[in-house]
Please model this.
Amino acid sequence: MTQPAPAPLILRGQRFDAARPAVMGIVNRTPDSFYAPARHVDVDSAVARAAAMVEEGVNIVDVGGVRAGQEGDWVDEATEIDRVRPVLLALREALPGLLTSLDTWRAEVADACSGLVDLVNDTWQGADPDLLGVAARQGVGYVVSHTGGLPPRTDPVGIDYGPDGAVVEDVLRVLGGGAARAEAAGLPRERILIDPTLDFGKTTLNSLALVAQTGRVVALGYPVLQAISRKDFVGETLDLPADERLEGSLAATAVAAWQGATVFRAHDVRATRRVLDMVASIRGDRPPARSDRGR
Model:
């Protein structure tokens, strides 16, 4: 079956496309992140993990300072900046060629990290309307997300988009509109990532449907980010805790990659890198590293 050709993502001169999908590794400066191995309480630990991820095949490192869900204490802007800015600064110094992403919904935090990031990962569907403008002024990439209109750090309860398939239509509408606003703000298409944002404002059935329909998101004509790794929809589908969700995450990754998603946010960089390369080779977009057998 012919799949839509994914639009490329270009950040700081680096291009990611069907032949070279990107792995976005996760570094959380939060003491309460849902997946403990991604927590880094100090800058040295965060930089060491980023360096290890480079060896494992990472392309972008996403740094966050606030837990996504409502559990845990509220984190104000000053605390979030104190958590993420020193890490981003240290990464620029230690690994200057590494692309960095800031996982935030706050314009003030992105503004404080000016010059230290290549991508602003707006995780809450434009909750802060000034964040897009900050990304545009900085000349970096921007992630358009879909969270069903929920405010930041809200866990989904009583979610109902309507009949079968309605969630996909809502995601396409919101992402298409958000991408158009990003273009109007001055961002070129190759720096606009669109993210269905699995789990956020969604049931497990919603997230499964969106993975299955990744190709329709790709068809909007922007590079697509899928953040699948160890999420609750994987856990609920297989009835597994976070530390046992690798295989389910990789299965969903392969499905989304085959349909043309360009960037995958992942805890398990090496495994994700291998899955993406294998899918790209099966699809015919990436040659094998070698082909000696039978010669």
